Amino acid sequence: MRLFCFPFAGGGVSTYISWADSFPDDIELVIIQPPGRGSRLAEDPHDNMTSLIDELMRHADFITQQPYLLFGHSLGSRVAYELCYRLKQNEMPLPQYFIASGSRAPHVSKDKEMIHNLPKNEFIQALEKLNGTPKELLENRELMDLFMSLLRADFKIAETYLAQKCKMPFSILVLHGQDDIDIEEHQLSAWGELSDLGHHLVQLPGDHFFINQSRNEVIHQVSQRVGTALAASYSTL
Protein backbone atom coordinates (compact mmCIF):
# COMPACT_ATOMS: atom_id res chain seq x y z
CA MET A 1 0.00 0.00 0.00
CA ARG A 2 1.16 3.54 -0.74
CA LEU A 3 0.68 6.72 1.29
CA PHE A 4 0.84 9.86 -0.87
CA CYS A 5 1.58 13.14 0.93
CA PHE A 6 0.84 16.57 -0.53
CA PRO A 7 2.60 19.75 0.73
CA PHE A 8 1.07 23.00 1.95
CA ALA A 9 1.55 26.25 0.02
CA GLY A 10 5.27 26.92 -0.28
CA GLY A 11 6.11 23.51 1.19
CA GLY A 12 7.94 20.49 -0.16
CA VAL A 13 9.27 17.10 0.78
CA SER A 14 11.00 18.29 3.97
CA THR A 15 7.71 18.21 5.91
CA TYR A 16 7.23 14.49 5.32
CA ILE A 17 10.66 12.98 4.72
CA SER A 18 11.10 12.12 8.42
CA TRP A 19 7.82 10.18 8.38
CA ALA A 20 9.37 7.30 6.44
CA ASP A 21 10.49 5.41 9.55
CA SER A 22 7.08 5.73 11.21
CA PHE A 23 5.28 3.17 9.06
CA PRO A 24 5.66 -0.60 8.55
CA ASP A 25 7.67 -1.98 5.65
CA ASP A 26 4.55 -2.74 3.62
CA ILE A 27 3.72 0.99 3.40
CA GLU A 28 5.54 3.00 0.75
CA LEU A 29 5.66 6.74 1.50
CA VAL A 30 5.40 8.84 -1.68
CA ILE A 31 5.90 12.60 -1.28
CA ILE A 32 4.56 14.90 -3.98
CA GLN A 33 7.12 17.49 -5.10
CA PRO A 34 5.49 20.13 -7.33
CA PRO A 35 7.75 22.30 -9.53
CA GLY A 36 9.44 25.43 -8.20
CA ARG A 37 10.99 23.92 -5.05
CA GLY A 38 13.62 21.45 -3.90
CA SER A 39 14.99 19.30 -6.70
CA ARG A 40 12.57 21.07 -9.08
CA LEU A 41 13.62 24.60 -8.13
CA ALA A 42 14.52 25.56 -11.71
CA GLU A 43 11.04 24.71 -13.02
CA ASP A 44 8.21 27.24 -13.16
CA PRO A 45 5.59 26.64 -10.44
CA HIS A 46 1.96 26.01 -11.32
CA ASP A 47 -0.31 28.96 -10.54
CA ASN A 48 -3.63 27.20 -11.17
CA MET A 49 -5.14 23.93 -10.01
CA THR A 50 -5.91 22.63 -13.50
CA SER A 51 -2.30 22.58 -14.69
CA LEU A 52 -1.11 21.06 -11.40
CA ILE A 53 -3.64 18.23 -11.63
CA ASP A 54 -2.84 17.76 -15.32
CA GLU A 55 0.76 17.03 -14.30
CA LEU A 56 -0.30 14.63 -11.54
CA MET A 57 -2.63 12.80 -13.91
CA ARG A 58 0.33 11.95 -16.12
CA HIS A 59 1.29 9.65 -13.22
CA ALA A 60 -2.23 8.33 -12.62
CA ASP A 61 -1.32 4.74 -13.50
CA PHE A 62 1.42 4.73 -10.85
CA ILE A 63 -0.79 6.42 -8.27
CA THR A 64 -3.59 3.90 -8.69
CA GLN A 65 -1.69 0.67 -9.46
CA GLN A 66 -2.05 -0.61 -5.88
CA PRO A 67 -4.15 0.30 -2.80
CA TYR A 68 -3.31 3.79 -1.52
CA LEU A 69 -4.19 6.59 0.89
CA LEU A 70 -3.93 10.35 0.39
CA PHE A 71 -2.78 12.89 2.98
CA GLY A 72 -2.56 16.61 2.42
CA HIS A 73 -1.99 19.62 4.64
CA SER A 74 -3.72 22.93 3.93
CA LEU A 75 -3.50 23.51 0.15
CA GLY A 76 -2.24 19.93 -0.13
CA SER A 77 -5.62 18.62 1.09
CA ARG A 78 -7.43 20.45 -1.66
CA VAL A 79 -4.93 19.33 -4.31
CA ALA A 80 -5.46 15.74 -3.17
CA TYR A 81 -9.23 16.12 -3.38
CA GLU A 82 -9.09 17.60 -6.89
CA LEU A 83 -6.88 14.68 -7.92
CA CYS A 84 -9.58 12.30 -6.61
CA TYR A 85 -12.21 14.22 -8.55
CA ARG A 86 -10.24 13.86 -11.78
CA LEU A 87 -9.51 10.17 -11.12
CA LYS A 88 -13.22 9.57 -10.50
CA GLN A 89 -14.09 11.29 -13.77
CA ASN A 90 -11.68 8.93 -15.51
CA GLU A 91 -13.15 5.90 -13.68
CA MET A 92 -9.81 5.07 -12.06
CA PRO A 93 -9.30 3.50 -8.60
CA LEU A 94 -9.76 5.90 -5.69
CA PRO A 95 -7.94 5.88 -2.33
CA GLN A 96 -8.82 3.58 0.56
CA TYR A 97 -8.83 6.56 2.90
CA PHE A 98 -8.46 10.35 2.65
CA ILE A 99 -6.85 12.53 5.32
CA ALA A 100 -7.42 16.30 5.14
CA SER A 101 -5.17 18.25 7.49
CA GLY A 102 -5.42 21.96 8.32
CA SER A 103 -7.83 22.82 5.52
CA ARG A 104 -11.32 24.05 4.82
CA ALA A 105 -13.36 21.79 2.54
CA PRO A 106 -12.38 22.47 -1.09
CA HIS A 107 -15.89 23.42 -2.26
CA VAL A 108 -16.26 26.07 0.46
CA SER A 109 -15.01 29.52 -0.47
CA LYS A 110 -12.27 31.34 1.40
CA ASP A 111 -13.72 34.12 3.59
CA LYS A 112 -10.44 35.82 4.46
CA GLU A 113 -8.57 38.52 2.55
CA MET A 114 -6.49 37.21 -0.34
CA ILE A 115 -2.76 37.81 -0.03
CA HIS A 116 -1.19 36.34 -3.19
CA ASN A 117 -1.45 39.63 -5.11
CA LEU A 118 -0.36 41.98 -2.32
CA PRO A 119 2.69 44.22 -2.81
CA LYS A 120 5.91 42.45 -1.85
CA ASN A 121 6.36 43.88 1.67
CA GLU A 122 2.70 43.37 2.57
CA PHE A 123 2.82 39.83 1.19
CA ILE A 124 5.85 39.04 3.37
CA GLN A 125 4.09 40.49 6.43
CA ALA A 126 1.04 38.33 5.71
CA LEU A 127 3.24 35.23 5.44
CA GLU A 128 4.82 36.07 8.78
CA LYS A 129 1.39 36.18 10.45
CA LEU A 130 0.59 32.70 9.10
CA ASN A 131 3.58 31.36 11.05
CA GLY A 132 4.45 28.74 8.46
CA THR A 133 7.38 30.30 6.60
CA PRO A 134 10.74 30.06 8.40
CA LYS A 135 11.80 33.38 9.93
CA GLU A 136 15.26 32.94 8.39
CA LEU A 137 13.66 32.90 4.93
CA LEU A 138 11.40 35.87 5.57
CA GLU A 139 14.35 37.98 6.76
CA ASN A 140 16.65 37.02 3.88
CA ARG A 141 15.94 39.36 0.96
CA GLU A 142 17.84 37.27 -1.61
CA LEU A 143 16.10 34.03 -0.63
CA MET A 144 12.71 35.74 -0.63
CA ASP A 145 13.39 37.05 -4.14
CA LEU A 146 14.20 33.48 -5.16
CA PHE A 147 11.05 31.96 -3.68
CA MET A 148 8.63 34.86 -4.24
CA SER A 149 7.17 33.50 -7.49
CA LEU A 150 6.66 30.06 -5.94
CA LEU A 151 4.92 31.45 -2.87
CA ARG A 152 2.67 33.74 -4.90
CA ALA A 153 1.79 30.89 -7.29
CA ASP A 154 0.93 28.46 -4.47
CA PHE A 155 -1.16 31.03 -2.61
CA LYS A 156 -2.96 31.98 -5.82
CA ILE A 157 -4.08 28.35 -6.18
CA ALA A 158 -4.99 28.14 -2.51
CA GLU A 159 -7.06 31.31 -2.59
CA THR A 160 -8.79 31.06 -5.98
CA TYR A 161 -9.53 27.35 -6.47
CA LEU A 162 -13.05 26.15 -5.66
CA ALA A 163 -13.93 22.49 -6.17
CA GLN A 164 -16.99 20.85 -7.65
CA LYS A 165 -18.95 19.22 -4.85
CA CYS A 166 -18.82 15.47 -5.37
CA LYS A 167 -19.48 12.55 -3.01
CA MET A 168 -16.54 10.17 -2.77
CA PRO A 169 -16.66 6.43 -1.83
CA PHE A 170 -14.12 6.71 1.00
CA SER A 171 -14.00 7.97 4.59
CA ILE A 172 -12.38 11.30 5.36
CA LEU A 173 -10.35 12.11 8.46
CA VAL A 174 -10.13 15.84 9.14
CA LEU A 175 -7.28 17.08 11.33
CA HIS A 176 -7.45 20.60 12.74
CA GLY A 177 -5.23 22.72 14.97
CA GLN A 178 -7.01 23.83 18.15
CA ASP A 179 -5.53 27.33 17.83
CA ASP A 180 -6.06 27.69 14.07
CA ILE A 181 -8.32 30.74 13.90
CA ASP A 182 -8.29 30.97 10.09
CA ILE A 183 -10.64 28.02 9.50
CA GLU A 184 -14.26 28.20 10.64
CA GLU A 185 -16.23 25.25 12.02
CA HIS A 186 -18.60 25.17 9.02
CA GLN A 187 -15.61 25.01 6.66
CA LEU A 188 -14.35 21.92 8.48
CA SER A 189 -17.71 20.15 8.77
CA ALA A 190 -18.28 20.65 5.04
CA TRP A 191 -15.75 17.86 4.38
CA GLY A 192 -18.57 15.52 5.39
CA GLU A 193 -20.50 16.63 2.30
CA LEU A 194 -17.83 14.99 0.12
CA SER A 195 -18.00 11.43 1.45
CA ASP A 196 -20.55 8.64 1.19
CA LEU A 197 -18.91 7.01 4.23
CA GLY A 198 -18.76 10.05 6.50
CA HIS A 199 -15.95 12.03 8.08
CA HIS A 200 -14.29 12.26 11.47
CA LEU A 201 -12.82 15.44 12.96
CA VAL A 202 -9.80 15.31 15.30
CA GLN A 203 -8.52 18.45 17.05
CA LEU A 204 -4.79 18.58 17.80
CA PRO A 205 -2.65 21.06 19.74
CA GLY A 206 -1.21 23.90 17.68
CA ASP A 207 -2.13 26.57 15.15
CA HIS A 208 -2.42 26.19 11.38
CA PHE A 209 0.95 24.44 11.29
CA PHE A 210 0.16 21.90 13.99
CA ILE A 211 1.55 19.37 11.48
CA ASN A 212 4.97 20.48 12.76
CA GLN A 213 4.01 21.42 16.32
CA SER A 214 2.15 18.14 16.98
CA ARG A 215 4.12 15.97 14.58
CA ASN A 216 3.90 12.77 16.62
CA GLU A 217 0.15 13.10 17.14
CA VAL A 218 -0.39 13.68 13.41
CA ILE A 219 1.67 10.61 12.53
CA HIS A 220 -0.28 8.58 15.11
CA GLN A 221 -3.60 9.56 13.51
CA VAL A 222 -2.29 8.75 10.04
CA SER A 223 -0.84 5.44 11.24
CA GLN A 224 -4.21 4.38 12.64
CA ARG A 225 -5.89 4.92 9.26
CA VAL A 226 -3.05 3.20 7.44
CA GLY A 227 -3.52 0.20 9.73
CA THR A 228 -7.25 0.14 9.10
CA ALA A 229 -6.74 0.32 5.34
CA LEU A 230 -4.06 -2.39 5.45
CA ALA A 231 -6.29 -4.73 7.46
CA ALA A 232 -9.15 -4.22 5.03
CA SER A 233 -6.82 -4.85 2.10
CA TYR A 234 -5.45 -8.09 3.58
CA SER A 235 -8.95 -9.32 4.40
CA THR A 236 -9.86 -9.26 0.71
CA LEU A 237 -6.86 -11.34 -0.37
Description:
α1 (49-57) crosses α3. This protein has one domain (2-235): Alpha/Beta hydrolase fold, catalytic domain (Rossmann fold), CATH 3.40.50.1820. It contains nine helices and six strands, in the order ββααβαβαααβαβαα. It is an alpha/beta fold. Helices cover 40% and strands 14% of the residues.
How would you summarize the topology of this molecule?
Layout: E1 2-6, E2 28-31, H1 49-57, H2 60-64, E3 68-73, H3 75-89, E4 97-101, H4 120-130, H5 135-138, H6 141-160, E5 171-177, H7 185-189, E6 199-204, H8 210-213, H9 215-235
Parallel strand pairs: 1-2, 1-3, 3-4, 4-5, 5-6
Helix pairs in contact: 1-3
What are its keywords?
single chain; 237 residues; alpha/beta; Rossmann fold; six-stranded parallel sheet; 9 helices; 6 strands; 40% helix; 14% strand; Thioesterase; TEII; AB_hydrolase_fold
Q: Could you write a compact summary of the structure shown?
A:
With 237 residues, the chain is an alpha/beta fold. Helix content is 40%, strand content 14%. The protein has helices spanning 49-57, 60-64, 75-89, 120-130, 135-138, 141-160, 185-189, 210-213, 215-235, and strands at 2-6, 28-31, 68-73, 97-101, 171-177, 199-204.
SS strand fraction:
5-15%
- Structural domain tally: 1
Q: Write the CATH fold name.
A: Rossmann fold
Distance between the termini: 13 Å
Rough outline = globular
Average residue pLDDT: 92
Q: What is the β-strand count? A: 6
Alpha-beta classification? alpha/beta
Order of helices and strands: EEHHEHEHHHEHEHH
CATH superfamily: Alpha/Beta hydrolase fold, catalytic domain
Family: Belongs to the thioesterase family.
Domain Thioesterase: 2-223
Pfam families: Thioesterase (PF00975)
InterPro entries: AB_hydrolase_fold (IPR029058), TEII (IPR012223), Thioesterase (IPR001031)
